[in-house]
Amino acid sequence: MPKIAIINDIHCNYLMLKKTLNYLKDKNIDKYIICGDSITDGYENNLVIDTIKKLNPIIINGNRELSIINYNGRDWQNSLQYASMLYTYDTLSKENKEYLKTLSTYKIVTIAGFKFCISHGSPYHVRDLIKGTDTKTFAKLIKDFNCDIYLFAHTHKPFYKEFKGKTFINVGSFLPATKKPVATFGHLLIDGKKINYELIEINYTAEEIKNYYIGSPLYQKCPEWCNLLIWEYINGIDYCNDFIKYLNKHYKIIDNNTWKIGFPKYMAEKQLDIF
Questions:
Q1: Alpha carbon separation from 84 to 43, 56, 79, 87, 111 (Å, rounded)
Q2: Is residue 120 within 8 Å of residue 61, measured between CB atoms?
């Protein structure tokens, strides 16, 4: 009866990765599946990748890995909007960049007789946003790939759906976006011809998150982005993308000036303290 841990969207939060692996240490996990976006938005990218490697997982790239390994070395320079991405690019080791280049954006694998389709967005595009209600997409996936279990990530929103005898799963993210401040991952047990699935929640405190980011090298490079991340963990709301939408709505362009002007206004509007 293989036991599988499914982890999505780590976003370089080694604190959450440690908590998750500590939870799993006595669960006799046979295989880890990691569905991309393991890096960026944190300051311990090499430690996260090195820890993942030791798990010998089935792993794919997400859109964040693709952005890093395909970066042209110019566009993020001197840009506050992309300071977090540039920090990852600059600090990630050559060895780990080469490791990421060996990974695909989706995989088809068979475990204990069950055929898995593993993707970040979807097998069609790494940035696809698949919901548990997307039955038309599910039908197309069944026709095109004929797998038993389909795994998704990217949205940071967990779902479990059975459709036409197949199973569709998103285990959520370490970086929550469901207004519930918990990190989530999945535990899958294959029992003969049946599967038993459980969504696991990992709790943390606001103080843990603040202490993890404030004073970190990433905070020194991009304090605005770190503040947004901290509040995203605390409230379970995607403030990072919401802030970008705010800037696009209120300014003709996003540059360092509008970034600096817009950030305190946005935080005041959302009634969020700046750390």
A1: 9, 27, 10, 5, 37
A2: yes
Domain ranges, ordered by start, for the chain: 3-202, 222-269
Whether 110 has a pLDDT exceeding 90, the answer reads yes
Instruction: Express as a percent the part of the chain with pLDDT over 90.
Output: 99
**Closest residue by Cα to residue 13 from 220, 232, 273, 264:** 232
What topology does CATH give the domain 3-202? Purple Acid Phosphatase; chain A, domain 2 (3.60.21)
Model confidence pLDDT, tens digit, residues 8-60 = 999 999 999 999 999 999 999 999 999 999 999 999 999 999 999 999 999 99
On whether the CB atoms of residues 84 and 175 are closer than 8 A, the answer is no
- pLDDT tens column, 221-240: 999 999 999 999 999 999 99
